[in-house]
Design a protein that fits this description.
The strands form two sheets. A seven-stranded parallel beta sheet has the order 3-2-1-4-5-7-6. Strands 9-8-10-13-12-11 form a six-stranded mixed beta sheet. The protein is an alpha/beta fold. It is about 35% helix and about 20% strand. Helix 2 (about 20-30) crosses helix 14 (about 360-375), helix 5 (about 120-130) runs parallel beside helix 14 and helix 6 crosses helix 10. It has helices at about 5-10, 20-30, 70, 85-95, 120-130, 145-150, 155, 175-190, 200-210, 245-260, 295-300, 315-320, 325, 360-375; strands at about 10-15, 40-45, 65, 75-80, 100-105, 115-120, 135-140, 160-170, 265-270, 280-290, 310, 335-340, 345-355. It binds L-homoserine (HSE). L-homoserine binds next to loops.
Length: about 375
């Protein structure tokens, strides 16, 4: 513990630190030495109260995440526990007069009037203004939204976007850890019946038969994802919302909240689950307000933040750098396939890939905590 750390003297509570996003968050905090700034930390659990926490908790046993009295001791609560716990706990805490800062990866409070969706490369000022004006609820954005905004940051900064269509290719991790496991179980099940040197049509018949077999593991997804895809993510939004899923609706609602637009930018597209593990990809069609040469657009995108990397629109670079396989586990926001569409010179095509557990979930929260503490 450094003197720098002691100076802050705030009690920070961590909830949902064991899950996938919580684990990635702790890993990143270790890598960046963030725990130095948080000497007074409390780890909570919904199921293992009194047991040993993660190494960074030291000797302190886990406290009860369902105890409002225990939670109230914290000045800041960082939660990756999920919307169900947030919806149950947050109102009770506030009702009991808790005035601390709530920092959440779950979606439950994102669209509340008194919350800020954090994505500091784009809205650092909004976060700082929020803190100054007494906002106490900060929430990470939907992964697809954050990754798209990071990739197109330069275009938003220069106010060049009239509208965006984003068709997504979303990884299993976005649905949760057990979905990733099920994807692999499905692949294993397929491999049991597959003889890769068999005649291709014979192989296809064997695979389809396996996908349609009642024994095929589909408890989580409900249907095969391996050797297939699912063009539906989350539930349908209410009637009157144009037949969209909630994931698609978030693309519009959350992105505009993060950008603080007065006149909302139309953003739409079809969200599709594919068999990648933890990187979300998006095929973008962007209507620009002005006809700008491609080399200028490339520079605007590339210069916007330190994580975005423009991949030249060539076969070798694209297949080498613009894939979930290449980007997974990194903070890079890859964007490539940049070209003008046939519809006209103000229509831009692009493809982007980002790790949905890093910039899509943990990283904006990690950085927001540092901003709240005044150390970033
Ligand atoms: N809802 C996203 C998905 C993940 O299902 O991929 C997190 O925002």
């Amino acid at each position: 513990m450094t003197n720098k750390g002691r100076r802050y003297g705030m009690k920070i509570g961590f909830v949902g630190w064991r899950g996938m996003v919580g684990s990635v968050l702790r890993e990143r905090m270790h890598e960046e030495g963030d725990f130095e700034y948080l000497p007074d930390r409390i780890f909570f659990s919904t199921s293992n109260v009194g047991s040993q926490g993660p190494p960074v908790a030291g000797e302190q046993p886990l406290e009860d995440a369902n105890s409002i009295t225990a939670l109230r001791k914290c000045d800041i609560i960082v939660t990756c526990q999920g919307s169900e716990w947030t919806s149950r706990t947050y109102p009770q805490l506030r009702k009991r007069g808790w005035k601390g800062i709530w920092l959440d990866t779950a979606s439950a409070l994102r669209m509340e009037k008194n919350s800020v969706i954090v994505l500091d490369p784009l809205n650092r000022e909004m976060i700082k203004e929020g803190l100054k004006s007494g906002i106490k609820t900060f929430v990470g954005g939907n992964c697809t939204v954050s990754l798209m905004l990071m990739a197109c940051h330069g275009l938003f900064k220069k106010n060049l976007v009239e509208w965006i269509n984003s068709d997504t290719y979303q990884a299993a991790s976005g649905a949760g850890a057990r979905y990733m496991q099920e994807l692999i179980k499905q692949m294993v099940s397929i491999s049991e019946v597959s003889n890769p040197v068999a005649d291709a049509l014979e192989l296809d018949r064997a695979v389809i038969e396996r996908l349609r077999s009642p024994d095929f593991p589909t408890e989580s997804f409900g249907v095969p994802l391996a050797c297939s895809l699912i063009p539906w993510i989350d539930r349908a939004v209410k009637a009157g919302q144009m037949g969209q899923t909630k994931e698609e609706w978030k693309g519009f609602a959350e992105a505009n909240k993060i950008l603080g637009t007065k006149t909302p930018i139309p953003i739409g597209g079809i969200c599709v689950r594919i068999g990648a593990m933890r990187c979300h990809s998006q095929a973008l069609l962007i209507k620009l307000k002005n006809d700008i040469p491609l080399n200028e657009i490339t520079k605007i995108i590339a210069d916007a933040n330190e994580w975005v990397r423009v991949v030249p629109n060539k076969e070798e670079t694209t297949i080498d750098q613009l894939t979930p396989g290449a980007v997974s586990g990194t903070l890079t926001i890859a964007i490539g396939r940049l070209h003008k569409a046939r519809m006209g010179s103000t229509y831009l095509r692009a493809f982007t890939v980002g790790d949905q557990l890093l910039w899509g979930a943990a990283e904006p929260i990690r950085r927001a905590l540092r901003i709240i503490l005044g150390t970033l």
